[in-house]
Amino acid sequence: MIMTNKHFPRLSAPLLSSAISKMRFASPLAFSFSSLVLFLASVLPVAVPQLSFYDPARVTQISWRPRIFLYKGFLSDEECDHIIKLARKKIARSMVADNESGNSIKSKVRTSSGMFLQKHQDEVITRIERRIATWTFLPEENAESIQVLRYQDGEKYEPHYDYFQDVKNQVRGGHRYATVLMYLSDVERGGETVFPNAEGASSQHKDETWSECARNGLAVKPHKGDAVLFFSLHINGTTDPASLHGSCPVIEGEKWSAPKWIHVRSFDDPQEPSSSWGCSDASEHCPLWAAAGECEKNPLYMIGNSDAPGNCRKSCMVCDI
């Protein structure tokens, strides 16, 4: 069932937007709070300043597992063209993170070209970054810089996860919690974003305009200005296998897109691992969470590992890893 919000009253929430933009995730419960706020935002229109304008009437939720939202017209044509202009002369062959070492390597699974913009590179980019924070209710400091990707004839990105398989990339900001994927151009054919493991894929109607690749799961066509928001983690902070996704090969035309990855913790100001964390709790609620079974359900947050210590090692009685 696709939900819209055309019949709901408008609310003014500039203070809420300001508070959320400064929010840090301090516990597993913060994921649940963020999810609840996002759901409310998807059905209750919010009036915000033009700088970060967000119109929930354009948002639909297209999947619960994983949680996927489609925002029609998230970017203007001028904003799309501006991003492409900034990136066109600087793009290079895209890389992937090696699952074991975490190092960036070239791979046949990803054949696009890309580059990263700088945060707040100019007024346009700043406006877009703030709009993303307003839509997602996730702090700007938890996000990476916007990446710009170009897919030409036959180029693709095979199904993959945005959360990390290695330890190295989790040290800075933790897992990627959410992804905002912005489409900067129309594509004549192909180039869809496909979610092979998403629930409800079989009920999605697809006519002859969809590629064969897109028929292998729940899919979204790239339309200039649209954006997709999806979550790679469950609301309790554990990884969601249903978030597997890929970019189908471009059959006709050229595809430009811009992903924005948002982490569990601050990406701009990451906390360095400390030996003093070894057998202590970072929250007074740790004993309650441990008693509720969170050590087993959410080990990454509660226990962590040798490179990224967890927040409740004492209550989980795991002091040496």
From TrEMBL:
Gene Ontology CC annotations of this record: endoplasmic reticulum membrane
Compartments it resides in: Endoplasmic reticulum membrane
MF GO annotations: iron ion binding; L-ascorbic acid binding; procollagen-proline 4-dioxygenase activity
Cofactor: L-ascorbate
Group of enzyme by EC: oxidoreductase
Keywords: Dioxygenase, Glycoprotein, Iron, Membrane, Metal-binding, Oxidoreductase, Signal-anchor, Transmembrane, Transmembrane helix
Entry EC number(s): 1.14.11.2
Reactions it catalyzes: L-prolyl-[collagen] + 2-oxoglutarate + O2 = trans-4-hydroxy-L-prolyl-[collagen] + succinate + CO2
Membrane-related topology note: Single-pass type II membrane protein
Main subcellular location of this protein, as a coarse class: endoplasmic reticulum
Domain spans labelled Fe2OG dioxygenase: 142-264
Family the entry assigns: Belongs to the P4HA family.
Protein name per Swiss-Prot or TrEMBL: procollagen-proline 4-dioxygenase
Lineage, broadest ranks: Eukaryota, Viridiplantae, Streptophyta, Embryophyta, Tracheophyta
